[in-house]
């Protein structure tokens, strides 16, 4: 992750984009540029043994339908230690906002209860409750903001496409009128 200062990844080559594809604009400037879709890009990590293992597992699954216990076992096998590293967790949208609002609520609830009741145990309980409530509310608020933002982007894209279509139809109409 580029913005995290303690990231273990090295600085990426400036000629590569985020998918690892090099930009050949200087070598193929005469040819027309075609859009590159995700399906057109080869996988970064080609592991033949992993593919053979997956094919064998798929064949076994086709021969027998797994029970609920086997499905749970397979789900637990997909979990790795890397899933719980800070780099992975910090990539979750709204994680930072939820954590900050939760810790703020924990500090406020805990300190108010400590000053008012002078009981550390009660203040710790209220602080933990504030952490949970603040995190939940922060998470929901951030997700709501993201949803609204995505709706606005979709509306803007639809309006842009509509204007482009109107412009195209107007130009086409002008061409047809000029032919007559």
From TrEMBL:
GO biological process: mitochondrial respiratory chain complex IV assembly
Region: Disordered, residue numbers: 1-70
Subcellular location: Mitochondrion inner membrane
Family: Belongs to the COX20 family.
Principal cellular location given in the protein's record: mitochondrion
Residue ranges with Low complexity bias: 22-32, 51-70
Keywords in alphabetical order: Membrane, Mitochondrion, Mitochondrion inner membrane, Transmembrane, Transmembrane helix
Residue ranges with Basic and acidic residues bias: 41-50
The protein's role, per its UniProt record: Involved in the assembly of the cytochrome c oxidase complex.
Classification via InterPro entries: Cox20
Organism in which the protein naturally occurs: Candida boidinii
UniProt-recorded name of the protein: Cytochrome c oxidase assembly protein COX20, mitochondrial
GO cellular-component term (any): mitochondrial inner membrane
